[in-house]
């Protein structure tokens, strides 16, 4: 059964990809969706057997690397952490497959698209089920390659090419750091197997563990699009089902899974944990403030993904790995709901993604409006919604740490929650509640999608409402031993009791109160009194007073700064990309084509050819020239032979000759060669 979870998505991908022309579009849909439905059903059984019944399974297939120093096997581990990851991965992948049958119905390359989706799911399963870091790295690289194929699926579009290349190149940086982390693990532990490494961690030097943690963290930062990376919001050029699959439960959560799986390593590195807290808090605040004034519907949701990933990093830095995993699972459901519902809006409104050019869709798309409303309420973590049971808990745990970093994380997390509610309801106001701004023809042709779209949205809506309430005690309840040995938390880092019972009620309710206030403000500002925002960004005229000038300039600059993503692209292009191009030009022109070619094979061959040409010019056929050469050679030989006499004015003694045997040997060699030359010359003359 457990191997079937691995192999069925691969089977669907192979059949759809290689036999797509034989079985047709409908056959490709049936094969891939059937394989995913069966796999999802098996994952539920595995979740019950492994997680609820506490019976982890380890499968050893065969040996992969068997050397004197390193033994790695093809092994797969199904523990509580693995089966918890399989639920969102397989469920959302199955729903995305079903959704895509309608969304991609007009595309001529359906078989290729479904083959990529199933292959991506297979590599994600390999990543979460591998029992050593090398198998995990295989799945890690696999999802990176297939994500490029999916983002660049419409490869005739230049924007898709650029987005795919950006995602691939930035992820390669993280992959390089991750591979260095694997080399470091092997150097320190002598193995890459989880059980061996984690059992030896308490006996290893803290500096070594910190270096390993930061190298693994580098891979997780890029894969999960943390502060400093820019690829995730720009990967929206692929089809919307791809965005839902990549951003909800698979690609971006791979970094979170890596850190949660490596919890024993991180727990003995306080420096790495402190860095992760700050990184997560700053990332969540940066992404939320950037998403405030974005206008592309999918990009707004993408920035909310980055913000929620920052919350997960924050929880990992607080040593609350089970809370980070719980929020990742919750986030997967309501974020997939938001992406798929946004895709339904885009598909219905002639592929229009700019929220300023939509509006008034509440009566035209009531079901889609309900789905986005449920997803947004869960995202802003209103009480009794799925997001509330993990997101607010992370903020409370930050304050319960009672340290400066925890206090900063709490306030940044609270501001992030307020910003999240604001841009979520800004999207709802401009798309569904405000005055219609789209062409009349688009409204006349707008319609609710078919059952292939309604079914996934309905299921995800139910998960976004009830999943957190049903599974909160199992995942993050006080005293739960659901994760057993799959997650390690040092006893001194347990703060859940403090967060539950010691915090003032106002601090607990502050994120929720702020979110409600921000949501109401967004509805009022963008629906009832939009002129206020127009005045803030309106260019001041010559007739306005100085206060209006200050207000107009401030509004324009603030809007430009936030809408321009903190001008991060400008910084990258000017200081990173520009400097890299100049360095590459210097290396190419000066080093490669200059020094290396001059000293290397090209220079040596040219030197030998020039030397041979110069020597050949000596063959003039003139006897007097030959006589001159002979005389010069004789003088040179005599100078070499009698060099000690000329320099020291005396012959070397016998002892000196013994001490300088190499001089004697050289003289003898020269005499021998000269004698051979003279004898050869005489024999030629006699003939």
TrEMBL record:
Biological processes per GO annotation: ATP synthesis coupled electron transport; electron transport coupled proton transport
Gene3D superfamilies: 1.20.5.2700
Ranges of residues in domain NADH:quinone oxidoreductase/Mrp antiporter transmembrane: 132-409
Alphabetical UniProt keywords: Electron transport, Membrane, Mitochondrion, Mitochondrion inner membrane, NAD, Respiratory chain, Signal, Translocase, Transmembrane, Transmembrane helix, Transport, Ubiquinone
The UniProt record lists the keyword Protein biosynthesis: no
Transmembrane domains' residue ranges: 30-50, 113-130, 136-155, 176-197, 203-222, 242-260, 272-293, 300-318, 324-346, 367-388, 408-433, 453-478, 505-526, 626-646, 666-684
Position of the signal peptide: 1-20
Compartments in which it is found: Mitochondrion inner membrane
Top-level taxon in the UniProt lineage: Eukaryota
Molecular-function GO terms, alphabetical: NADH dehydrogenase (ubiquinone) activity; NADH dehydrogenase activity
Cellular component terms (Gene Ontology): mitochondrial inner membrane
Domain NADH dehydrogenase subunit 5 C-terminal intervals: 423-640
Membrane topology note: Multi-pass membrane protein
Enzyme's top EC category: translocase
Family: Belongs to the complex I subunit 5 family.
Function: Core subunit of the mitochondrial membrane respiratory chain NADH dehydrogenase (Complex I) that is believed to belong to the minimal assembly required for catalysis. Complex I functions in the transfer of electrons from NADH to the respiratory chain. The immediate electron acceptor for the enzyme is believed to be ubiquinone.
Protein name in UniProt: NADH-ubiquinone oxidoreductase chain 5
Gene name of the record: nad5
């Amino acid at each position: 059964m457990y191997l079937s979870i691995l192999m069925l998505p691969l089977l669907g991908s192979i059949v759809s990809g290689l036999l797509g022309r034989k079985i047709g579009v409908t056959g490709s849909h049936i094969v891939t969706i059937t394989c995913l439905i069966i796999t999802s059903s098996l994952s539920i059984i595995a979740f019950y057997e492994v997680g609820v019944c506490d019976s982890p399974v380890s499968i050893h297939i065969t040996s992969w690397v068997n050397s004197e120093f390193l033994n790695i096997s093809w092994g797969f581990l199904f523990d509580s952490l693995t089966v918890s990851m399989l639920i969102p991965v397989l469920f959302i992948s199955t729903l995305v497959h079903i959704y895509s049958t309608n969304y991609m119905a007009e595309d001529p390359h359906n078989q290729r698209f479904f083959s990529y989706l199933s292959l991506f799911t297979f590599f994600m399963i390999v990543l979460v089920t591998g029992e050593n870091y090398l198998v995990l790295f295989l799945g890690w690289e696999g999802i990176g390659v297939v994500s490029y194929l999916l983002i660049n699926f419409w490869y005739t579009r230049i924007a898709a090419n650029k987005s795919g290349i950006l995602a691939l190149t930035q992820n390669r940086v993280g992959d390089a750091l991750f591979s260095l982390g694997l080399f470091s693990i092997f150097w320190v532990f002598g193995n890459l197997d989880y059980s061996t490494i984690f059992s030896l961690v308490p006996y290893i030097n803290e500096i070594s563990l910190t270096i390993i943690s930061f190298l693994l963290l580098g891979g997780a930062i890029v894969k999960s699009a943390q502060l400093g990376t820019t690829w995730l919001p720009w990967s929206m050029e692929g089809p919307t089902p791809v965005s839902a699959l990549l951003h909800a439960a698979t690609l971006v959560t791979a970094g979170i899974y890596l850190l949660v799986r490596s919890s024993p390593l991180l727990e003995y590195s306080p420096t790495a944990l402190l860095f992760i807290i700050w990184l997560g808090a700053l990332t969540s605040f940066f992404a939320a403030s950037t998403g405030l004034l974005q206008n592309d519907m999918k990009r707004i949701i993408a920035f909310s993904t980055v913000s929620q990933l920052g919350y997960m990093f924050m929880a990992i830095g607080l040593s609350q790995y089970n809370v980070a995993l719980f929020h990742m699972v919750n986030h997967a459901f309501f974020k997939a709901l938001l992406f798929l519902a946004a895709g339904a809006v885009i598909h219905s409104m002639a592929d229009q993604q700019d929220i300023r050019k939509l509006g008034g869709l509440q009566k035209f798309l009531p079901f889609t409006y309900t789905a986005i409303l449920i997803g947004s309420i869960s995202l802003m973590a209103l009480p009794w919604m799925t997001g509330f049971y993990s997101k607010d808990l992370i903020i409370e745990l930050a304050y319960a740490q009672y340290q400066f970093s925890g206090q900063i994380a709490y306030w940044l997390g609270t501001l992030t929650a307020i910003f999240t509610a604001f841009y979520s309801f800004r999207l709802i106001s401009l798309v569904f509640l405000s005055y219609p701004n789209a062409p009349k023809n688009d409204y006349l042709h707008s319609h609710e999608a078919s059952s292939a779209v309604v079914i996934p949205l309905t299921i995800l809506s139910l998960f976004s409402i009830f999943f957190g309430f049903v599974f909160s005690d199992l995942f993050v309840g006080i005293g739960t031993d659901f994760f057993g040995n799959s997650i390690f938390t040092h006893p001194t880092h347990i703060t859940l009791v403090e967060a539950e019972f010691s915090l003032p009620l106002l601090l607990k309710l502050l994120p929720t109160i702020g979110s409600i206030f921000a949501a109401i403000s967004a509805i009022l500002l963008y629906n009832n009194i939009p002129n206020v925002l127009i005045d803030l960004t309106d260019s001041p005229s010559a007739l306005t007073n100085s206060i209006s000038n200050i207000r107009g300039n401030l509004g324009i600059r603030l809007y430009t700064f936030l809408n321009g993503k903190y001008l991060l692209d400008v910084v990258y292009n000017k200081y990173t990309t520009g400097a890299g191009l100049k360095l590459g030009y210097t290396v190419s022109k000066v080093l490669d084509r200059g020094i290396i070619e001059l000293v290397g094979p090209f220079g040596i061959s040219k030197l030998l050819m020039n030397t041979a040409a110069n020597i050949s010019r000596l063959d003039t056929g003139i006897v007097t020239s030959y006589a001159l050469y002979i005389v010069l050679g004789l003088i040179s030989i005599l100078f070499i032979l009698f060099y000690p006499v000329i320099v020291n004015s005396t012959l070397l003694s016998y002892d000196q000759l013994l001490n300088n045997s190499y001089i004697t040997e050289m003289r003898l060699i020269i005499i021998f060669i000269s004698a051979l030359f003279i004898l050869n010359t005489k024999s030629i003359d006699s003939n």
